[in-house]
Design goal:
The complex is a heterodimer. By secondary structure, chain A is of the alpha/beta class. Chain A contains eight helices and twelve strands. In chain A, strand 1 and strand 2 form a beta hairpin. Chain A is globular. In chain B, helix 2 runs antiparallel to helix 3. The chains are: A alpha/beta, B mainly beta.
């Protein structure tokens, strides 16, 4: 009679250990792995960030970052929220092309879009931004570095720097990547006072930066009136696809703008009404815009701050 | 805290000299408990202060969303009789812990709930204190804790160019109560002013933008003093004040604001009823 081969004790223990350890592997950040990117149009690559606030676990991977490959050079559009993430983005670029990274463009000042810049210093690129970006980053530098170091922790933050742009965009400007031009257009105050949009003319892809939020609640750090006016204008544009600062890798105009327009218009209407009624800032922050609560991720983290900013602006009307 | 030391050289008052003494003698984190006795000594000498006796109430947000613009309201319940002499606000751990002092006049009003609201910057998790001086000269204090930080160093204006263009715009608004015969009315004063605290870096000059803030505000009703406010840069950008005053004949409010550069801003509320 044959006795079936027993599983050896050693094998049993190995397998058991592997099974027990498997859940832990989810929490080990994939250091050194290239960022996951999708080619959304020929030569246009987008990395989608998580819908989270900064943490040691996500290393600031909370915004979208993209790059465009021309016949001679590469341009990066936003670099994510830490030098470590910037490095992963750079690795993703290098896994696709060896062409020199000549331009690092930041759509605006927020640290989750610019702290990865340091990973590109080695390429000696031209750092590009809205003509008000240098001032905006210069005045916020200490605060951004301190708060992000605290949120990310020393390991995930290591190497992150604020790098000021050297090419300031004051009017629509084109840059040439070789058989491919990018159109850079600085905007009047909206999400921030230094928003810059980028169009890849070859594929008619429009990078809106944080002028467009989807899923992730919009964050107001400029002018609510300016942003609503700008969105009206953007809605009249045509583009093959738009890339938001937070949200799915590509979206379509004008539908992509509608939830955000509704969110901002609701806050503006609620706040204006309360101002007319003589309500205070403290009172308005308790109710204004709360009908939008279930429509957005991270609402609890950012909404009241948005209402505060909107109130402080609209009370001057 | 490098910005802290820079603020000392930019004229933020005797409180800063006191703080510098403390910091230099005890480098590193100074106990917050050490602040209040010094501030009290400097401001009120050895006068006794009743605490949490219900004469004055402080409202603060349960969660601070933006440390550069934290709304505060001080309320004096209707049960408190008689005129009020003064109100002093402190935020212990701010570079200038004194937020404001209000000295009340005959038009401040009696006979109802009196209140004063403004918006402040909070630098580092700290107690905020309101000390009320009543007609008999006694002092009453209430305290709350503000869990927020970075409000002093943070960039203040979201659209600095637009704010600069509008600087000095002063709006005075009257809020007649539902019952016009009510002895206590409310009003709001707001001014477009950066209220620079000297802690923002100008990258073009590589220097700090010098402090420039609302130093004095005088509010009169029909020519009688409601209060004079002495302010500091602990008050947020675009200072905003909401307060009660005693009902008068016409209820015309006149406001005059002087900042640390000596610039004077004036305006008045619209005639009765607006």
């Amino acid at each position: 009679m044959c006795k079936p081969n027993p599983i050896s004790r050693k094998t049993f223990l190995k397998v058991g250990l592997a099974l027990a350890a498997a859940p832990l592997l989810r929490y080990v950040p994939a250091y050194g792995a290239p960022a996951e990117v999708s080619e959304v149009a020929p030569g246009v690559f987008v990395h989608q960030g998580r819908y989270e606030v900064q943490s040691p676990d996500n290393r600031g991977d909370i915004s979208n970052a993209s790059f465009v490959v021309g016949s001679e050079a590469v341009a990066v559009i936003d670099t994510s929220g830490s030098a470590a993430m910037g490095q992963d983005l750079r690795d993703a670029i290098r896994s696709v092309t060896n062409k020199p990274i000549r331009y690092v463009i930041n759509t605006h000042m927020h640290p989750d879009h610019v702290l990865g810049n340091a990973a590109f210093k080695q390429d000696q690129p031209t750092f590009v931004g809205h003509y008000k970006l240098a001032r905006a980053l210069g005045t916020r530098r200490e605060g951004y570095l301190t708060s992000n170091k605290q949120m990310l922790g020393d390991a995930a933050f290591a190497g992150s720097e604020i790098i000021l742009p050297t090419l300031a965009i004051k009017e629509p400007t084109t840059i040439d990547l070789g058989d491919r031009t990018l159109l850079l257009e600085p905007q009047a105050t909206a999400h921030t006072d230094n928003d810059l949009i980028v169009t890849d003319t070859k594929t008619d892809t429009l990078f809106l930066g944080d002028l467009l939020f989807s899923v992730h609640v919009p964050t107001l750090d400029g002018s609510i009136k300016g942003w609503l006016a700008l969105l009206d204008e953007m809605g009249k544009r045509k583009a093959a696809r738009v890339v938001p600062g937070h949200g799915p890798k590509t979206m379509e105009l004008p539908q992509a703008l509608e939830p955000e327009q509704r969110y901002l218009a609701t806050i503006a209407a609620d706040v204006r009404r309360q101002i007319v009624e003589g309500k205070t800032l403290a009172e308005a922050t308790k109710t204004a815009g709360f009908s939008e609560k279930d429509a957005w991720k991270l609402f609890d983290q950012y909404h009241v701050r948005n209402v505060t900013a909107a109130f402080a602006e609209l009370e001057w009307e | 805290m490098p910005h802290f030391f820079r603020s000392l050289t930019q004229g933020c008052g005797t409180a800063a000299l006191v703080i510098s003494t403390l910091v230099l003698s005890a480098p590193g984190a100074y106990a917050e408990e050490a602040m209040w006795p010094i501030l009290k000594e400097m401001t009120f000498g050895d006068r006794p202060i009743q605490e949490e006796d219900g004469m004055v109430v402080l409202e603060t947000p349960s969660k601070v969303e933006d440390a550069a613009i934290v709304p505060l309201t001080v309320r004096v319940p209707p049960s408190v009789q008689g005129k009020l002499k003064s109100l002093t606000l402190f935020i212990d751990k701010n570079p200038d812990p004194k937020v404001a002092t209000l000295t009340f006049g005959p038009a401040a009003g009696t006979g109802g709930e009196r209140s004063f609201s403004t918006r402040v910057r909070v630098d580092n998790f700290s107690h905020v204190r309101a000390i009320l001086e009543t007609e008999d000269g006694s002092l009453h204090m209430t305290t709350k804790f503000l869990a927020a930080a970075g409000g002093c160093a943070a960039m203040q204006a979201k659209d600095p160019d637009a704010d600069t263009a509008d600087m000095g715009k002063l709006i005075v608004r009257n809020f007649p109560p539902a019952l016009e015969s009510s002895p206590i009315w409310a009003a709001q004063v707001m001014i477009k002013h950066p209220n620079h605290n000297g802690m923002q870096l100008d990258i073009n000059t590589a220097k700090f933008i010098p402090p420039r803030f609302v130093k004095e505000m005088t509010v009169t009703r029909d020519g009688e003093l409601v209060f004079q406010l002495d302010g500091t840069f602990s008050i947020s950008t675009n200072p905003n004040f909401r307060f009660t005053f005693g009902k008068g004949e016409e209820n015309n409010l006149d406001v005059e604001i002087v900042d640390t550069d000596g610039a004077v801003f004036k305006n008045q509320s619209q005639p009765k009823g607006s």
